[in-house]
Write a structure and sequence with these properties.
The chain has 228 residues and is of the alpha/beta class. The chain has one domain: Rossmann fold, CATH 3.40.50.880. It contains 6 helices and 11 strands.
Length: 228
């Protein structure tokens, strides 16, 4: 039997969303199209020690309502673990907080986005390096993605390769080395999940389907399985 993927959970969906749609592990499992046994969940907020990444096919780090810049003890411990996972050659995919944690763990700077909060469905544009990236190469030049964040990777870690941007977020995606990616947007969010993060009076147009962004998690699974 092939090794399962590890989902490092760093937060939970709001109660009103979770009651209707489940929590982040459910969303990632669906987006990655994995059976339950193929995705193991470890909660970074409570699990100590965290699992050995070498026992898993790849690592995916979720979003969170926590702030990397607050340097909470569990977050700092997860950053230390994540640095070891990347340096050990693990396949890693960080989402939103996970993207920021990856940047922080490897020497970048994370803090409040001076352009303000990015919330809802937005247009993301590939940068030139994305044309040769194994995950981003098949995406169109511009694609929709779901966003919900106040903090950003303001200074990428040394050697990080920028892959995508948006009007409000200069670093929507990056690759570090050949096996670690971070995306500021949420490929695991459906349009319905995105609406759950918006004020009830917000126009439905700000929570539209984003099928191209959703493909990234499946491409990550295929890439990892193809490398074994």
């Amino acid at each position: 039997m092939s090794r399962p993927f590890l989902l490092l959970q760093t937060g939970s969906a709001p109660d009103r969303v979770r009651r209707r749609r489940g929590d982040y592990p459910d969303w990632f499992r669906r987006a990655m199209r994995l059976p339950r046994a193929a995705l193991v969940v470890a909660d970074a907020r409570t699990a100590a020690p965290l699992p050995d990444p070498r026992g898993h096919a790849g690592v995916v780090v979720t979003g969170s309502d926590a702030m990397v810049s607050h340097r909470e003890p569990w977050g700092e411990a997860a950053a230390h673990w994540l640095r070891g996972a990347v340096e050990g050659g693990a396949f890693v995919f960080g989402v939103c907080y996970g993207h920021q944690l990856l940047g922080h763990a490897l020497g970048g700077q994370v803090d409040d986005n001076p352009r303000g909060e990015e919330l809802g469905t937005t247009w993301v544009e590939r940068l030139p390096a994305a044309a040769h990236d194994p995950l981003f190469t098949a995406l169109p030049q511009r694609f929709r993605a779901q966003s919900a964040h106040r903090q950003s990777v303001l200074q990428p870690p040394p050697g990080a390769l920028p892959l995508a941007r948006s009007d409000r977020e200069p670093l929507q995606a990056m690759r570090i080395g050949e096996r670690a990616w971070g995306v500021q947007f949420h490929p695991e969010f459906s349009a319905g999940a995105m609406r759950g993060f918006l004020d009830p009076g917000a126009p439905r147009a700000v929570a539209a389907p984003a099928p191209q962004a959703a493909r990234l998690l499946r491409r990550f699974v295929a890439l990892v399985r193809g490398a074994r």
